[in-house]
Amino acid sequence: MIVHLLEFRVTPGHEAEVVGFIRHSGPADSASAGILMQCLGRRLSRHQQEHIAVTSWRDEAALAHGTDPFGMPVYLSPRADLLGDRKLSSFRVSAALGDGAEGARVLRVYRANVAAADVAEWARRAVEHLAGLVGTEGLVYVREGVGMAGANPEGDVPVLALSCWRDWDAVLAATGGHIDRLVQSTELVDLERFIGVDHYELLASD
Q1: DSSP per residue over the chain, as a string?
Q2: Does the predicted TM-score (pTM) go above 0.90?
């Protein structure tokens, strides 16, 4: 399973057009196209034109078939001219919880780096960590994964925890107010070099 992120800024004056298009775009049969989940978020900050489109693909073959040579999901290509400052990244999923974002209103994207030598251990412990989150109030969907681009010149590999939550109160309760964490537990911090957490209001999900 692959999680693909497209971060972008909407050209001013075109947010309604872009959001409406994404709500109604995508293959007629997403399952046959290898798409397991799609959602769109708008950053919870004063920079309201900043958005993220998340697509979960069945495997690398589906990802390759469903994206153009630059990594843009082909279902978004008709509005590519309205998506500025694009940043693309893909992660191979190590641990998963939930089937989709239905019922969620908040998307959180937690990022860190892990030494290349520790990636296998991080992935193993991510599975154990996520198993402990089953039943967390308000937690709808989680995918934890390892960046597919490989290590950077410093020998670090990016890792990701993407989570969807019922509402902001659930986020605060699960993190104890420490919103720079996935939840209050910190089982992986000894392996991770924390980068940051971005928060989005979910605008459209399947």
Answers
A1: -EEEEEEEEEPTT-HHHHHHHHHT-S-SSTTTTTEEEEEEEEESSS-TTEEEEEEEESSHHHHHHHB-TTS-BGGGGGGGGGEEEEEEEEEEEEEEE-S--TT--EEEEEEEEEEGGGHHHHHHHHHHHHHTTTT-TTEEEEEEEEETT---TTSEEEEEEEEEES-HHHHHHHHTT-TTSSSS--TTTTTEEEEEEEEEEEEEE-
A2: no
